[in-house]
Amino acid sequence: MNYCGFLKTNATSGLLNYSSAEFSVDSLNPKFSDNCRFTSIFNFIGVWNSKFIISSVEYDDIKLTLYKPLFIQYYKNDYGYYCDYEYLDIHSYGETLAELKKSFEEDLVVAWKLYVECDESLLSPDAKELRKKILEVMKRE
Question: Where do the structural domains in the chain lie, given as residue ranges?
Answer without folding.
Answer: 2-46, 50-140
